[in-house]
Amino acid sequence: MIARLPLRFTGFVVAAAIGAVALVSAQSFNVKYGLWEITSTTQAAGAPPLDTSSMTPEQRARANAMMRNMGAKPHVSRTCITREKLDKNPFNDHADDASCKHTPVQRTATQYAFKEECTGEDGTITSDAHFVAPTPETVNGTVNIVRTRAGQSMTITSQITGKFIGSACGDVK
Predict the structure, then answer these.
(1) Exposed, middle or buried, 163 (CB in 10 Å: 0-12/13-18/19+)?
(2) What is the DSSP track for 22-55?
(3) pLDDT tens-digit map of 107-155
(4) Are 38 and 18 in contact (CB under 8 A)?
(5) Helix (H) or strand (E) holding 86
(6) Is 2 helix (H, G, I), strand (E, B) or coil?
(7) CA 13 – CA 35 distance, rounded (Å)
(8) For the chain, what are the domain ranges?
């Protein structure tokens, strides 16, 4: 899991936003089921969480540029929030990963915060997240991730907004 962070990071952020909607809904909050648009803006600082030692200079330059430009433009995705998804704990992207510990910090009808720590032979990832659902049609929040590997750390911060699009999801899962 830790080695795949750069490739799965966007998925984690989207899952976090979806999960925030889900968990708030579980607290009798009137979050609408259906199609949601999730926008995340990400900034990274520090050493890239990639082992670039075996890369060519060109590959290393592309990898470093990718990490520097991570927040250059917002990432927008769509997801379908259903009752079934809400019942499966969609917030915890690492539910089957024994190396991760997910700890809820705050859980109310309009707010959800958590901490998560994943450890493995590749290093440690710690996450802190806080989401607010001010209306049944909007969610916003922040996810802070620190990835430490071989004594080097990288900090990734994402600002997330979610908005309800409509009750029909079409082909979106």
Answers:
(1) middle
(2) HHHHHTT--PPPEEEEEEEEEEEEES-SS--TTS
(3) 777 888 889 999 988 789 999 989 888 998 998 999 999 999 888 888 9
(4) yes
(5) helix 83-87
(6) helix
(7) 17
(8) 2-166
Q: Kindly give, in sequence order, each residue whose CB lies less than 8 Å from that of residue 20, ignoring residues fewer than 6 positions away.
A: 91, 112, 129, 131, 133, 139, 141, 160, 162
Q: What is the pTM of this model?
A: 0.71
End-to-end Cα, the chain, rounded Å: 23
User: Beta strand 111-120 with 123-135: parallel, antiparallel or unpaired?
Assistant: antiparallel
Closest CA to 8 of 114, 127, 113, 163: 127
Identity of residue 32:
K
Closest CA to 14 of 75, 71, 67, 70: 75
Residues of the chain with pLDDT under 50: 1-8, 10-11, 20-21, 23-29, 89-92
3-class secondary structure per residue, 93-147? CCCCCCCEEEEEEEECCCEEEEEEEEEECCEEEEEEEEEEEEECCEEEEEEEEEE
Please state, in angstroms and rounded to a whole number, the distance separating the CA atoms of residues 128 and 108.
17
CA–CA dist 112, 104 (Å, integer): 8
Asked if residue 171 lies in contact with residue 78, where contact means CB atoms within 8 angstroms, the answer is: no
